[in-house]
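Hi! If you just cloned this repository, the fastest way to understand the data is to look at a raw example. We've pasted two of them here, unedited. The first protein comes first, obviously.
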Amino acid sequence: MEDLNNYATNLPDFETQLMAVGGGKIIDYVKVIASIAKRDYIAIPTNASHDGFSSPYINFLLREKIKREGKTGYFPSYIPTSPLAIIGDTKLVSQASEASISAGVGDVLSKWVAIRDWRLANRLKGEKFDIYAATFAEMTATLVSDRVSSLGQGFISEKGARDLLKALASSGVAMCIAGSSRPASGSEHLVSHALDKVAEKERLNIAHGHKTGLVSILMMYLHGGDWQRIPNVLERVKAPLTLKDLKLDRDIFLNAVNVAQKIRPNRYTILSEGITKSALINALEITGID
């Protein structure tokens, strides 16, 4: 963190153009530097595993670290910073691992759940709801779902990478329209964040999109929606469909679901009123996650 701060505060005085070339971690670091230095940056993703390259927000663990260090006065707060432009080389992205493509699909499909949570918060808590941003986010999930259904395993190609990049970039636009991550992040992301803490402690390496995709199945079931369409799409791109696929212990996952809402208590979701252990286990069994 100190290196990021030093780099940002020691940039040349002229309008240096920052370029973030790589995966989510590198792009998030450049976002932080751009925020501190008040500079623009261009995002050049080398994979399409999640919408981080288009989102103005940074990943949960980095955000928590900045908050901790900000309390000591050591590190400035992060101001959401969108890229000036996104350059997506579809050939380059299509040569990334198949797992990165399937993770990207999982992250896009999670928007269906995020929008349901947002609508629920609007109905029960009066939270402001932006129909344009919501429709935009839902559209990305539907388009990718339709393309995966038509291409099947052929989605793991440059053609699929192009569709996925467009959808993930559009997710970032939806967040900018809403002025928050609401269109792209709901209960499924809260559980993913809770699992991030576990992964950090247990040294587990689970792709963000694989977590959100799997958890979306469960959350869509709890919402009473058409949850079956999510695993049907994920299966076609060989994404993880069970806790065993993610090498996740059942008790760890159950605990993650129970503590998820505490991560962002002000973000109302389907989990906000709590869920009993027996109901959660029943949901896991019905959806086939466990």
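Ok, and the second one:
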Amino acid sequence: MHSRFITIAGHLALGILCMSLASAQEDQDKNVMLDKLEGSWILDSIEMRGEKRQGEDLPARFQGMKQTIKGDKMIVSRVDGMQFECRIVIRGEAEPHELDIIQEDREGKKKTLKCIFKIVDQTLVLAEGRDERPTSFETGPDVSTKVSTFTLKR
């Protein structure tokens, strides 16, 4: 009976160790992705409902828009002087990577924008869903996903 208890305790300890290692790996993956996101990202294009707008075709308030990410903070700055700060959270090892942008409005209510993203070379592609997290970077007439493309400014 004593050896059976030791066996069960050993399995339990091994399970806890495995979960701890998996959690540590997930935290490390999140930190690596946060490091890759750090910097100033300049808006290049926005695609909605299958229509892509970039450069001078972007609405004036979005031309030159910048997202600066440091740690878990994002500061969004527009050329019209509007600026706000958000908190970002990377969710797990999902593919594509998941990102929550959490912003507090003037009344103190938190709003969470559920996104997916990918980084290709010096380009950040961010897909935002209206009510739920997108599952792809595709847009179309019947799809409410907005896909924004940013270039890293060094």
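That's it. A detail worth noticing about the second one: Strands lie at 39-48, 51-54, 66-70, 73-77, 83-91, 97-104, 110-120, 123-128, 146-153.
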